[in-house]
Each structure stands twice: as C-alpha cells, then as structure tokens.
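Sequence only, no structure available. Ideas?
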Amino acid sequence: MKIFNDPKTLQSFSEMLRLQEKRIGFVPTMGALHDGHLSLVKIAKSRADVVVMSIFVNPLQFGKAEDFGKYPRPFERDVELARFAGVDILFAPSAEALYGQGFQSFVEVEHVSKGFEGAIRPTHFRGVATVVLKLFNLTKPHVAVFGEKDAQQLTLIRRMATDLNLDVEIIGAPIVREPDGLAMSSRNVYLTSEQRKEATVLYRALMQAKSQLDAGERNVDVLKMLVTRTIQASPTALIDYVDIVDDDAFSPATSLQSGKSYFLILAVRLGEVRLLDNLHFSA
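Reply:
I predicted one. Tokens follow.
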C-alpha cells in the first residue's frame, strides 16, 4: 500500500493510473475506521483495479461548537486496517496541504443541503461538497463509494456529480450494523455504557416501521408517529428529527408513490452524542 500526503504527487500518480487504463475506485473517510468503512473498500475493489482511500478530518465540515478537536484520529491503527482491507493507495494530507493559504472557493449544493443536518449544521454540507470535489480532482476516480448511513450526504454528492458533470459514478453502500442493530459510526465511541444500550432504540424504531411497511402501511404520518413514539419511550433520547424523504432530492414526502424509493431518516441525541440512522425502502 502506498501512502501519499502531498496532493500534487497523488494527482500525478492518479493521472498515470488513468493513462495506464486502470480503473480507480475511491473511498473517502475521516479515519477512525470500522467495519462500515471496510465494507466500502470491498465494494470499491469489486468495481475497480486500484482502490484509493483518503483519511482526512475535514475542518470545513465542523461548526465552531462541534467536536473537530476531539474527533478520534487513530492513524496507525487505520493504516493497518486499510492495508488489511486491500487498499492500494492511502491519501492522508494535512489541512494546510489540502487547502493551502488564502483558500476561498467553496461548493454549494442549494436544495439538498438546506434541511435536516443542513438546518442544524448550517456550514456542514458546504464543507462536505468542497472537500469531496477537491478529493475527486486529486484521485480522479471512476467510481466513489459512500455509505447510506449519511443519506443526506450521499444524496448531496450524487446531486453535485450530476450538476457538475463529474466523470465519476457514485455508489451508495448499505449500512453496516453492530449485532444489536446500532449503525456503525466513528462517534459511537463517545457513548457511555448506558447510552450505548439505549442507542439500540433507533434500530428498533426503524424495524417497527419496516414491519408496518411490509404489512402494507403507506401513511407517512402514521409511520413517522410510530418511530417517534418508540424513541420517545426511551429514558433520555432526544429527537432532532424524524421524517420520510425521497431519495433523489431529499424532499419531505407527504405521501408514498408506488415504485419510488425513500429514506426514513432520524437524528437522535443521547447526551452530547448525535446519532443518525435511516431505513431505505421502496413504496
């Protein structure tokens, strides 16, 4: 596995791979790798000759009161996990190297970025779109793999790729879960033992909604209320939002149309930890 820190060196190497007609797969991460990240690598390897992973804790997508300073950075462990998973190239730049002095150019994806996470974290998706476009320009991938757990981010990247005619296929990968159903996340390490037990309520609520969907329920308000009441029954869980959105524009759905796909999304706080989860389904 080759490790690059300098953006221009990586860009030149990526261009050489393209000239050699190598198919490049890209997995962007912020490190603190877990099995969810490694599942993205597996998908990328099935679709490409060379897999590039980035590890970069992006300051642009953190608000002033968020956890940028304490975000986990177990770099040596991440290197070993990436190597074991079959990553060919690891890109781990510093913020100074990636953005340089006087950086002032940003990418805005107007509609998708406004609600839900965008409303709670107003500058978050500008930071996400900007860094992903920069990483695409440096790694020159044919395919890039993103997890469905961050459904709004996935939708935003797909919109950006379409709108800007990017020469990359965006692949959404299914959520990888712990044995008790909790969606894997680098921030799960922040949970206390009691919060960790309580966090399973998110998955239980989604599975109750899935059971109702499988039984034929199509009323959006009924499904949202079922999820809300299940989570509210938990002692300390606080809901930021529960909603159903279409999976192409991320617009709230008032009704479910046969043949269309949707995300049932939720964000819940347990103490200072915010957890995201969703159910991807077709009506």
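Residues 10 and 263 are 36 Å apart (CA to CA).
Hope that gets you unstuck.
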